[in-house]
Amino acid sequence: MKSFNPLIATIVVSTLALQVSASPVSVTSADLPGSCDPMAALPTVVDELGTSAAFPADERIAATFSFNNTDACVSSSSPLLPNVEVRITNLTTVSFTDLHYVADPGTGFTNFDGVINGFEAVRIDNVGVNRPLIGEFGGILPLVFEPGETWLFVLDDWGNAAGFGAADLGSIGVPTGVPGDLSTGSIVAIPVPEPASLSILALGAAAMCLRGKRS
Asked: pLDDT digits over 3-41, tens only?
C-alpha cells in the first residue's frame, strides 16, 4: 500500500487553485491573403479578457475609445473613414502576452492580420508593417500587459453595424458572445505564469520524480 504524501497533495491543490477562476476559450487562428502582417499561430486555448461583470476577476479589463486619424497600417487604411483608439487597462493580478483583438459579428476594420475563429483579428503589437499598439503606460516589460498597465491601440476604419462602441468588449466566447451582451469585439491573450506558480510546478515535478524512485 502506497503511503500518503502531504507534500504532493499540497502541490496538487495549489496548482488547481491557480486554474479555477480563469475561463479559457478555444480558438483557431489563420492568416489572410492581403493582410498587413502575417498572422502568427496562437495556442488552441487562450484566455479572453473583457469589460463585462460576467468575466472572472483574473480576466477583467477596463476600456474606453475615441476617434483619431492615426493609421496602424498605412497600406490598408482609407483616408475617408475614421480610425479608433482603444484604451484598455489590466484590472487583474496577472500579466498577459500575445494580445489579439477579434471582431464580433457586425464589426469591421481594415488593419487585420488574419482571422481567429473565422473573424477578423489583429495582434496588438508595434512590430512589422501593422503597428496598432501606440502606447504602453504603467508597465515595465514591452509587449507584456502587466497588472495595472494601460495599452492604447488603433483599429483602422473601424465600424459596427449596430452603432456600438469599440470599447464594448463584453462577449463571452470568441466571437459570438452571449446573447444580450452589447459587444463589438474580444481580446484574447496568453497568461504569463507567475514565478511562484512556476516554482510550485517545478517542486511538484521534483516530488513526483522522488516518489517514483522510492516506490
From this structure: 444 433 333 333 333 344 567 899 999 999 889 999 989
Distance CA(196)–CA(25), nearest Å, equals 24
Residue with cell 488574419: 114
SS3 call for 1:
coil
Tell me the whole-structure pTM to 2 decimals. Answer: 0.81
CA dihedral 114, 116, 118, 121 (to 10 degrees): -50
Q: Per the domain annotation, does 202 fall within a domain?
A: no
Domain assignment of residue 150, yes or no: yes
Question: Could you give the CA distance from residue 37 to residue 111 in angstroms, rounded to a whole number?
Answer: 9
Domain span holding position 130 = 21-192
3-class DSSP state of 141: coil
Name the strand (E) or helix (H) holding 65. Answer: strand 61-68
Note the pLDDT of residue 174.
85
Number of neighbouring beta carbons within 10 Å of residue 58: 18
Strand order across the beta sheet in which 25-26 lies: 25-26, 45-49, 185-192, 95-103, 119-123, 114-116, 29-31
Q: Please state the length of the chain.
A: 215
Q: Is 204 within the bounds of a domain?
A: no
**How many domains does the structure of the chain reveal?**
1
